[in-house]
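Handoff note, outgoing to incoming analyst
You'll be picking up this chain. Sequence as last confirmed:
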Amino acid sequence: MKKLVPFLLAVSLAHAVAADPIRIAIGTQDTTTNTAAGGPVPRELQLLEKYLPHDGKYKDAVYDIQWKSFPSGPPLNNELLANKLDIGQMADFPAILGAVAFKAANNGVHTIYIASLSGGVEGAGNGLVVPIDSPVTSIAELKGKTVSVPFGSTAHAFLLRALQKAGLDPVKDVNLVSQAPDVGGSALKSGQIDAHADFVPFAELFPFRGFARKILDGQSTGLTTTHGIQVRSDFAEKYPELVVAYLKATLEADRLIRENPEELSEKIGKWTGIDPEVVYAFHGPQGIQARDYTLKPEFIKAIGEAQETLKLLKKVNDPIDVKAFVDDKFIRQAAKELGYDYDARLKDYSPVPLQGKDFVTGEAVGKGAGQIWVAGEPKVRLYKDVPATFAALNRLDKEGKKVRITFVHDQGTGLKLIADKVWYVRHGKDLAAFLEKSAAEQAAKDGSLLTFAEARKQVEDHNAR
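Most recent structure output, in case you need it:
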């Protein structure tokens, strides 16, 4: 019996060690809508659990999955550095700041940028808004004004480039202050600032909620922006299969959003507090930013350019090697295990297409189609062009039906726009939408420049004849 007791104790101890849970702590940015495939969707639908291995060295594994959402990248970086998180998602600028912080810690651990979640190759997603009653219609009119932006963010880089493009000195010609999205929104409402620049989804969210108007999108600068996934190197080295499992969960989330954008937008809205209509602006067909899991050359270049900008802002003293920071082996393996062709997607820059038929005529619609989300209807209606969309809005008003949101597309850039917040130009029977008033004025030299209300009225008058 004396010999048996130590043996049983050893067996019990071995079992306890084997049963120790493996922590998978994931930092998300739920309110940064374009990262939904990496955060709220796999979390709430328990997609990670679906892909975690339970064979081989993980045969007896017990997983401790922890999710924590952050309003921005810096606090997420702090917890990655403190080893409170294993995986995190953020934009290019905070990703660099985090990598630099790890390098400075010099403890043998670094972060690896392993996949994208979304991106705007030409800069779509960042935006500049002014108070709803502001007379300002262009960034040039902000000379001598106070403009806020989250410093060190991708939106900060967009704003700096946009100011310079407009011939304004960011130091001498405007008063730049650092404000997080929630603070910037409050400051806009109270009139404490003249404009606010921010990342996804706030340049759409604030106008949708009725207290701001978007006057410029990041697409005007051509400055690529991307949001992606980072992992601590010690976690990736010890548990590469778990990193791949998480990425497989994000790929399934991406597929589910693509197949059911309205349904997932409703759910994401409940999970994050961001209005479903705004979620759909990004995740619906022809969205403002494209979901993209591949590490496109433009995204990698954007990460490098983010570091250069941060050096100029004196936020980076000891730069990292961007080529070593970015590693696609995990996302390639995840894609392979799900039967995806990674290289084909790497070369594909097309957004989720607008496919379907005009709600009234049954005609096939193209990328410039209008979209109306009617309250109580599970699917967004499509219309072939702006006049058809406005005619439908007028009919819906007469029928007493509530419209949740209407989208049109910028005539010049193709950017998805909230219809009641932009400018229109009429040429004969045709109507074209523009985000920037200056672009609309240029197009209206041989046409008529109209507000949303005026454009709808002219469609109504024309159809009444």
